[in-house]
Amino acid sequence: MQKARLRIQVLLFLLCMMFTCTSPIAQAAPEQPLNVPPVQMFDMKQERIIKSVPNQEKYQQYAEQWLKSITKVAPQVSIGTKCGYIVRVPLAKPFTVNLPNLQVETNTVFLIYCPEKEPMLLVFGPDRKPYLMEFKADVKPFIEEMLTPSHPGANRQ
Fold first, then answer.
1. Which of the four pLDDT bands, split at 50, 70 and 90, describes residue 20?
2. Residue 103 contacts residue 89 (beta carbons within 8 Å)
3. Residues of the signal sequence (predicted)?
4. Distances from the Cα of 28 to the Cαs of 67, 112, 116, 145, 149, in angstroms?
5. Contacts of residue 52, Cβ cutoff 8 Å, sequence gap at least 6
6. Average pLDDT of 24-35?
7. Which of 62, 76, 156, 157 has the fewest CB within 10 Å, making it most exposed?
8. CB burial class (10 A; 0-12, 13-18, 19+) of residue 64?
9. Shortest CA distance to 114 belongs to which of 64, 52, 42, 49?
């Protein structure tokens, strides 16, 4: 029952994030923010967004690396236990995931990161169908950057 509740909470969060169009935080940054919604980090234990940063080219590059390294659709139906983070990276331009038996175009990627497990990606196709994917790219530099306190106002407390 608790697993089902967690699964529903995570899916509701992801759907809310998909349909919500928030504007980037208006602050000076070394890189120019892109004209896309911000990158947001959701803490699964706290059940809230803990960081929201302007979407910049470096985040687009991280997301592209992850998407290009997808190896297969994950065999599990859910993301499992309530640990770690979900990071939403809206893409500046759609990306097509090409696998032997699947081709999915997406405009947002969700990184699911739990320190004790392999990270996964969640993408939604044009029909809003979810695909949980396994991939090979190293996400630790990105996660470390996201967990590092940045300029005032970037973290939601």
1. very low
2. no
3. 1-28
4. 29, 28, 35, 18, 16
5. 22, 25, 38, 39, 40, 41, 154, 156
6. 56
7. 157
8. middle
9. 42
